[in-house]
Design a protein that fits this description.
Elements: E1 21-35, E2 42-50, E3 59-65, H1 72-81, E4 86-88, E5 102-104, E6 114-124, E7 127-136, H2 150-164, E8 174-175
Antiparallel strand pairs: 1-2, 1-6, 2-3, 4-5, 4-8, 6-7
């Protein structure tokens, strides 16, 4: 059998994390049907794109728990994007005695919205990945002047509409209205 020799670049190493910093993200899609491999807690995968700065177009994946101690991430994303949710009062408490409520929202409301988020690089099982935190709302006047992303406008419009909406009558479930 003949021996062949050829030149080629090494295989790509895969994902390259975005450097630490604050980025404007537009949510592209949400998959709410995920479960954490380690904790078995239900979670959603939020796929975003960076929409300004030197990493424009880079994909950002945020894993947001739908139960347990990490569920604050989901609520923070909803608050930052202006997506409405219902708070359903509950008598449940966690192991530390903190009151637990149920939250209900439509995942279809998230794609097309935007938010600012801070990232840092974390290493897990030898792989470097981005972790996201400090989710913040995008105000209409904060949208980039040169590249006004549709997501920033949509997020600001949702926030303004939520501010204008009157709160529902005081009965369960309670509708959350952005102030």
């Amino acid at each position: 059998m003949p021996v062949m020799t050829f030149k080629a670049k090494d295989a790509p190493t895969g994902y390259t994390p975005i450097p630490d910093g604050t980025y404007l993200l537009e949510i592209e899609k949400v998959d709410p049907n995920k479960v954490s491999k380690t904790t078995k807690v239900p979670q959603m995968q939020v796929t975003c794109k960076v929409v300004e700065g030197p990493y424009i177009g880079k994909t950002a994946t945020i894993w947001a728990q739908l139960a347990g101690k990490g569920a604050w991430v989901t609520r923070a994303i909803l608050d930052a994007t202006g997506v409405d949710y219902e708070v359903i009062e509950s008598d449940d408490v966690d192991e530390e005695g903190n009151k637990l409520n149920d939250y209900s929202f439509d995942t279809d409301d998230l794609p097309g919205t935007s938010m600012y988020a801070d990232t840092f690089i974390d290493e897990y099982e030898g792989n470097k990945n981005n972790k996201w935190k400090n989710f913040k709302a995008v105000e209409a006047d904060e949208a980039p002047k040169d590249e006004k992303p549709a997501a920033a406008a949509k997020g600001a419009e949702k926030a303004a509409a939520s501010k204008a909406a009157a709160p529902a009558a005081a009965s369960a479930p309670v509708r959350r209205v952005r102030q």
